Amino acid sequence: MFALVKDGSITKYISGNKGITIGDIQYPQSIFTLWSADEKKAIGIYEVEYDNTNKKDEAWYINTNQSFVFANDKVTGSYGSATAKAHADTTWTQEDSDDGLMPSDKSIGDIKTRGLKYNLIQTIKKQAAGELQNTDWYVVRKADAGTAVPSAITTHRAAVRTKADEMETAITNAADTPALETLYTYTKQDDGSVTRPLGELPTLDS
Description:
Blueprint lengths: L1 E5 L2 E6 L5 E3 L2 E3 L3 H4 L2 H6 L2 E7 L9 E2 L4 E5 L2 E5 L4 E2 L5 E2 L2 H5 L12 E3 L2 H18 L2 H10 L5 H23 L3 H7 L3 E2 L5 E2 L11
Parallel strand pairs: 5-8
Antiparallel strand pairs: 1-2, 1-5, 3-4, 6-9, 7-8, 10-11, 12-13
């Protein structure tokens, strides 16, 4: 993206996908790709430089809108401080009721919005159910025909449930949103493997 600067202030933002008229002169689209940065600056066009220092993973944080500033002969787009998404559920309060914000079918203390923990745990439950579903037919066959479930399958199904419980507990015990993010952050280990603190559900191929 580009910005048009006049008298030290940004007057317009430009995508660079079409020509532009500045004063009485019509410039073709090609100036955005063929002209040097200094040539563009000479007519007031600056390519926006992005500072993503404050930008955080949107899975865990709500980023601000970008703001743009012209200073030191450059236009910079940057973010303000990100806000962590709520890690716990929020509930309807007496204040919500007094302000007329609480729906008629809700009571004080009812769930207002689900936090990250709830949603992450639901995902773990679905993933575990999906893995168990792959071997459900052994259990159905045993119920229908009496054929024993292979011990390896029984062991695997137990391991899935155990690991799912461990993952849910780790999520529940996370103190805040940064702690949740850490659980899901993959890092390279000394042995070359890439793992995350939360771990993974076992699969038949693992």
